[in-house]
Amino acid sequence: MSNGRSSKLWIVNVTSFILFIILCSTGLLNWLVLPRGYQAREGFLVSLRHFFIAIHEWVALIFMVVVAIHIILHWPYIKSNLRNTVS
Questions:
Q1: pLDDT at site 26
Q2: Domain coverage including residue 28
Q3: Distance from C-alpha of 79 to C-alpha of 77, rounded to nearest angstrom
Q4: Which residues, other chains included, contact 22 with Cβ-Cβ below 8 Å and sequence gap of 6+?
Q5: Left, alpha or beta for 40 (phi > 0: left; psi -120 to 50: alpha)?
Q6: Cα separation values, 87 from 57, 75, 77, Å
Q7: CA distance 15 to 2
Q8: Higher pLDDT among residues 56 and 4, named by residue
Q9: Mean pLDDT, residues 33-53 taken together
Q10: Is residue 37 left, alpha or beta, with left meaning phi > 0 and alpha meaning psi from -120 to 50?
Q11: Total structural domains in the chain?
Q12: Would you say 16 and 72 are in contact if contact means Cβ atoms under 8 Å apart?
């Protein structure tokens, strides 16, 4: 593997790990910590919940793009393994 390609894969892997950690933390915060429904009256916590939902959705979109880039960078490996299993 060329040096430039391995550095791209490293960047994509680290980026996807960081995005995954952000997705997990915002999802768990919204699910377990911040109030929802009738518990969520008006105030700071409701605004914080909406902020974390927006962050969660945008990070999820970016994460999907990074996973697509990850698959594109690994496409020769995927193609060769598919060729080996089919034949």
A1: 95
A2: 3-86
A3: 5
A4: 55, 59
A5: beta
A6: 41, 18, 16
A7: 20
A8: 56
A9: 75
A10: left
A11: 1
A12: no
Tell me what pLDDT residue 1 has.
58
Give, for 35, the enclosing helix (H) or strand (E). none
Could you give the residue ranges of the DSSP H alpha helices within the chain?
3-28, 44-73, 75-86
pLDDT (tens digit per residue) in 4-34: 888 999 999 999 999 999 999 999 998 988 7
Q: How many CB atoms lie within 10 A of CB 12?
A: 18
Can you tell me the distance from the alpha carbon of 16 to that of 69, in angstroms, rounded to the nearest whole number?
Answer: 10
CA distances from 34 to 28, 38, 62 (A): 9, 12, 24
Q: How far apart are CA 1 and CA 31, in angstroms?
A: 42
How open is the CA angle 34-20-10, to the nearest 5 degrees? 155
Type of residue found at 54 = A
* Separation between Cα atoms, residue 30 and residue 7, nearest integer Å: 35
